[in-house]
């Protein structure tokens, strides 16, 4: 088992309600030809040092007894959610490669459904966000919210594109701000609003629903377990699924199925991570209603090649397992 930290350089400054970044880091794991990944995400609170230590502590002896779908005291015993995600992806990738089957087939998913992704525009001035939206030429855009000019930013973007617009506040609004802003923003034909409230304000979603804001609400950072899906089922319209926050494919898949059984829509999302993790997420996105899988388009030095894009369409690679392969020199 070999793991390393890779620094990801961003094409543009990544400004969201949590702060601004010009680069991010991710942990890449290799085990017997299978690859896994754990993005370093500030709000999740795990450093690369902690994830690497958890991987080292887990050790190769454990991995030899763990198989996809038979986890027991294996992957679930890892204390780090990031390390759990990396190991889980590596196991699924190795299993698919051994079978000669793509990940979607290993997961028991029908690959007939097309995948379309949004392209994210980070927080900036209204003029700059409109400029990036025009340059993107995307049919689905996600706009980061939580600044002082949110309404002006959405208006500026809508003025230059007819694309489907999704908004993501990353927990940057108070209850009162969300209740005031969302009905005003609805006039710009908004498809949904993602994580309008603070992560810890789970009760606020029920309060916001009672305000009848007129736009579907999806929870992201507030839901990272299958049990969390149950807790918000009556308060939101959809759940954002991300491999990193749930701890890998198995639990993310379980969360999707639970959300579907409760009548909730699901969005497969991603962190700032490489094509390895995003390609894995794209396989699972075949079970979701919508997707936000644009991270490879936001970084300059992707260490893997995998999924490709044709406009807003996401195309899975032809190989077995996840189908992502290291680029030369990485």
Walk me through this protein's architecture:
With 330 residues, this protein is α/β, with parallel strands linked by helices. The protein has 2 domains: 2-101, 2-Layer Sandwich (Enolase-like, domain 1), CATH 3.30.390.10; 115-321, TIM Barrel. It has helices spanning 48-63, 81-99, 103-106, 126-136, 150-158, 175-185, 203-210, 226-232, 243-246, 249-261, 275-285, 295-298; strands at 2-16, 19-31, 34-39, 115-116, 119-121, 140-144, 164-168, 190-194, 217-219, 238-241, 265-268, 290-291, 304-305, 308-310, 313-315, 325-326. The strands form 4 sheets. The chain has an 8-stranded parallel β-sheet with strand order 5-6-7-8-9-10-11-12. A 3-stranded antiparallel β-sheet has the order 1-2-3. Strands 4-15-14 form a 3-stranded antiparallel β-sheet, with no helix packed on it. Helix 8 (226-232) links the parallel strand 9 and strand 10 (238-241). The longest helix is centred in the N-terminal third of the chain and has 19 residues, at 81-99. Residues 68-73 have low confidence and may be disordered.
